[in-house]
Write a structure and sequence with these properties.
alpha+beta; 3 helices; 44% helix
Length: 172
């Protein structure tokens, strides 16, 4: 038993025409120019992930080791080979106060180096102050720099990282 069709004959024909055109378009081979642009974008994303792994990651690993040796909590999250997102590498840092009487409830601050196809490598930092400082817990997130993928250098990463650590230690 067939239901009464709420679409008019004209709307039904238009819908069928749209579906047929979509089926033909999706089964045909992709346009060479579109494929070339897609391949170039994928190559750039892959190159930025490699740059993050080879230049940024070693600096953040060394910084993490120094922070841990000084008694702070630190970790590095590497998403430079992620298939479903643009590459990024982050340093998470939670400062610890020295002395038995000052157990702090510091929050983790994060420094992220990530690839943005329009801007290159973008540095973002999220600095969270400790509630133990006698003030409201606030967060300060900002973009502290942008640079082309090929221009990323160890010195640039070191500068951004040391500025971040200094800002977190001052806030806590």
């Amino acid at each position: 038993m067939r239901r009464a069709n709420p679409l008019t004959d004209e709307s039904t024909e238009r819908l069928r025409s749209l579906l047929k055109a979509h089926a033909e378009r999706t089964t045909s081979a992709p346009q060479p120019a579109a494929k070339t642009a897609l391949d170039a974008g994928e190559r750039q994303t892959h190159a930025s992930g490699e740059r993050l792994r080879k230049v940024v990651r070693p600096v953040l690993d060394d910084c993490m080791a120094e922070l841990r040796n000084a008694g702070h909590e630190a970790s590095v999250q590497d998403h430079s080979d992620s298939e479903d997102a643009y590459p990024s590498i982050a340093l998470s840092f939670t400062p610890r106060a020295h002395g038995a009487s000052r157990r702090t409830t510091a929050l983790a601050s994060v420094l992220v180096f990530r690839y943005d196809p329009r801007r290159g490598i973008v540095v973002q930092r999220d600095i969270r102050a400790s509630a133990a400082r006698g003030r409201l817990v606030t967060t300060s997130a900002d973009r502290s720099g942008t640079i082309g993928v090929d221009a990323v250098s160890t010195e640039w990463v070191e500068t951004k990282t040391l500025n971040f650590v200094e800002a977190v230690l001052k806030a806590n």
